[in-house]
Design a protein that fits this description.
The chain is 70% helix and 3% strand. It contains 13 helices and three strands. Strand 1 and strand 2 form a beta hairpin.
């Protein structure tokens, strides 16, 4: 379906600027410790694939996505199970089995499930409109949908993706009008379960509890080493930074500088001004996204509204957690910063998701233009 509209130029420009900044900063963060040019090649390939797929998404109507979202959901669940196949298909890193080996880089199905869950849940909610008067029934069905997706992810030992996918689905359920009481109850049970899981997992228990108990700046605080090094880097950057490539924490002190801790590298090399630029750029994208969702709802396009809302909710949570752990508010966890961090699958599906949001905006404006013709 052609809309006759072009993508929102300021929104598209902001997205492309963040992608470019991420491309530069991941190369800088990998200097001296990794095969930097290999990382640069893989990230460039991921961005190219993401932009190509995003261009296709811009030409794909939301009605098409709604029709085939159940197929995408089933296919992604199969991929989540496929990671447990033996080498060379499944791939394990540091005790976590989350990847499928694609030779050039490792594909992570849990990243794909983030957007697929949004697309499938949006379709589910539009099909369940009559049942929304019975929130327990809809909630039970939602938990079944989420459970099929997150059980393999839990077995992969990926608590971060489990939390993001689950909370995104529940936030969409809330936006659709399900009663708050039921969501509070289920949310309480979910966080209780997550707490029990963390408590009985020795590594995660140590990471969580010792983060709050230890003195950050004591010599014995091995568990908060990553946070301490991130804060040292940010402090070195001051307001304007040391300059791109001139940071030193990434060379030997800061673990995972190109992925989880990329925001602290930005702080060191681009300073507080660089960090604020990234924050305001994300705030602009997410703010525009929620407005797109609101406009789609006004136009009576509930599926599109739920999709845009789900994408923005997911980005809000992931960005907030990543930045919070970089500035020492919460313990470090494996959350990438969308559009910025190194990571093939994350980059590809972040771009696709935002392209879908741009498509929804194009359809909103096309619908608005048609309505004006009949006024």
């Amino acid at each position: 379906m052609k809309t006759g509209q072009s993508p929102d130029f300021p929104l598209l420009t902001t997205i492309l600027v963040l992608i470019t900044l991420g491309w530069i900063m991941t190369f800088s963060a990998s200097l001296g410790r990794f095969d930097s040019y290999s990382f640069l090649f893989k990230q460039t390939l991921s961005i190219f694939i993401g932009l190509s797929a995003g261009l296709i998404a811009l030409q794909t109507s939301t009605s098409f996505l709604k029709k085939y979202s159940p197929v995408l959901y089933a296919f992604t669940v199969v991929l989540l199970v496929a990671v447990f196949l033996p080498e060379p298909i499944g791939h394990t890193v540091k005790g976590s089995t989350r990847w499928i080996n694609l030779v050039v880089y490792n594909f992570q199905p849990s990243e794909m499930m983030k957007i697929v869950m949004v697309l499938f849940m949006a379709g589910f909610l539009t099909r369940q409109e009559k049942d929304l008067k019975d929130p327990w029934l809809v909630l039970s069905k939602t938990l079944l949908i989420v459970g099929l997706a997150v059980i393999p992810i839990i077995l992969e030992i990926d608590l971060g993706a489990t939390i993001i996918i689950t909370l995104t689905a529940l936030s969409m359920l809330f936006a659709a009008g399900t009663y708050l009481k039921q969501l509070i109850l289920v949310g309480g049970l979910f966080f209780t379960g997550a707490g029990v899981f963390i408590y009985f997992d020795e590594v995660r228990r140590a990471r969580m509890f010792e983060f709050w108990q230890e003195d950050l700046w004591s010599n014995s605080s091995a568990k908060v080493y990553q946070t301490k090094q991130a804060l040292i880097g940010i402090a070195r950057g001051d307001w304007t930074g040391t300059g791109i490539g001139a940071g030193i924490q990434k060379y030997s002190k800061l673990p995972e500088p190109h992925t989880d801790m990329i925001f602290s590298v930005i702080g060191e090399e681009l300073g507080i001004l660089g960090m604020l630029f990234v924050l305001f750029a994300f705030a602009y994208i997410i703010g525009k996204g929620f407005n797109i969702s609101k406009q789609a709802l006004k136009n009576g396009r509930k599926y599109s509204s739920y999709v845009a809302f789900g994408i923005c909710s997911w980005f809000c949570m992931q960005i907030s957690v990543n930045i919070s752990m970089n500035i020492g508010l919460i313990p470090p966890k494996g959350f990438t910063l969308p559009l910025i961090s190194y990571g093939g699958t994350s980059m590809i599906f972040s771009i696709i998701s935002l392209a879908i949001m741009l498509r929804i905006d194009m359809e909103n404006r096309s619908e608005y233009s048609r309505q004006k013709q009949y006024v």
